[in-house]
Amino acid sequence: MDQYLNTQIKKTNKTIEVLKEKTIVFVIPLLQKGPFDLIIRFPYAGEFKEVYASCSKQAVNDIVIDIEKCSESDIENTPKWQSVFNLLPAIKSGSITTSGNPKKAEFIREAVEQSDHFRVNFKDVSAGEGTITIELTIKLT
Predict the structure, then answer these.
(1) Could you tell me where the DSSP H helices lie in 36-135?
(2) What is the pLDDT of residues 85-126, one digit of tens each?
(3) Residues 58-69 pLDDT 10s
(4) What's the rounded Cα separation, in Å, for the pair 57 and 136?
(5) Which segments within the chain are labelled E, that is strand?
(6) Which distant-in-sequence residues (6+ apart) come within 8 Å of 99 by Cβ?
(7) pTM above threshold 0.85
(8) In what side-by-side order are the strands of the sheet with 21-28?
(9) What is the pLDDT of residue 4?
(10) What is the C-alpha separation between 17 and 116, in angstroms, rounded?
(11) Closest to 67 in 3D by CA, of 139, 137, 136
């Protein structure tokens, strides 16, 4: 099979790009203040690249989002959740995405360890804001 694939690539003169980043996507239908009841394990090592959030309708009030990280060794014992941000991402009142916020989110440190766990913690949100999707893009190392 590999020989066939190599032959086809040579014939078409096309290159194959190796996947260099992955995105964790949180889809949260009901917003409420505090940690959302969902934990995602990221099975790769990497570096934070970008965070982007969008809401199904314009935010009535600012929606302040935190993403917290816990190491694999801590998750089974006493989870130690720590924010990944110096400056939290937010969807400003009247906006639908974090792109409408002039202050861009800043990561505390870029490193992501293999098998780190992540969750969303809403710091400021009003009821009835709509469904929110949060994309956390990580460059693989």
Answers:
(1) 72-75
(2) 999 999 999 999 999 888 899 999 889 999 999 999 999 887
(3) 988 899 999 999
(4) 20
(5) 21-28, 34-35, 40-42, 46-55, 63-70, 82-83, 85-87, 90-91, 106-107, 111-112, 116-124, 132-140
(6) 52
(7) no
(8) 21-28, 132-140, 46-55, 111-112
(9) 46
(10) 26
(11) 136
